[in-house]
Amino acid sequence: MSFGGATMAALEILISVAVVAALLVLRGIVLARSRGNVVCSLRTSNRAWRSGVARYAGGELHWIPFLGLRLRPRHAIARRGLTVSTRRPLTGDDGPAGYWTVDCAGVSLAMSEDALTGFLAWVESAPPSAHLDAA
Predict the structure, then answer these.
(1) Is 107 helix (H, G, I), strand (E, B) or coil?
(2) What is the mean pLDDT of residues 89-116?
(3) Bridge partners, residue 101, by sequence
(4) Global pTM value
(5) What is the DSSP string of 8-62?
(6) Which residues is 50 bridged to in the sheet?
(7) How would you classify the pairing of strands 50-57 and 37-44?
(8) What distance in Å separates the CA atoms of residue 124 and residue 119, rounded to the nearest whole number?
(9) Residue among 56, 55, 59 nearest 130 (CA)
(10) Between residues 121 and 70, which one has the greater pLDDT?
(11) Rg, Å, the chain Cα set
(12) Is 129 helix (H, G, I), strand (E, B) or coil?
């Protein structure tokens, strides 16, 4: 391979990486700005917060991460039987500053105060029979 061929191959790889990066950024922008989506971080167990968006779909809250290729939800939280154990404001040491955390069974969500109001209204607007499964 000549010097010109190696330069062209390196340039093609660089362009491919730039295109993939641009598509990932565009995906994140589309997710964040889509109607009905709310920017929301998620944490399971004691793992780190992961940024993404939440979308209400019928009786479920679908969470889609910002980083990834698929547009399908990574987590689906059913409203039926869902109880909020705690809610509190986050500090810069505990998670995204200015956000509130909501702890539910096995998962914690971090969201803005406006999104928290919407989430709590969604949980409370469940039909009366939806909370019969809650222990």
Answers:
(1) strand
(2) 86
(3) 88, 110
(4) 0.71
(5) HHHHHHHHHHHHHHHHHHHHHHHHHHSTTEEEEEEEETTPPPEEEEEEEETTEEE
(6) 42
(7) antiparallel
(8) 9
(9) 59
(10) 121
(11) 20
(12) helix
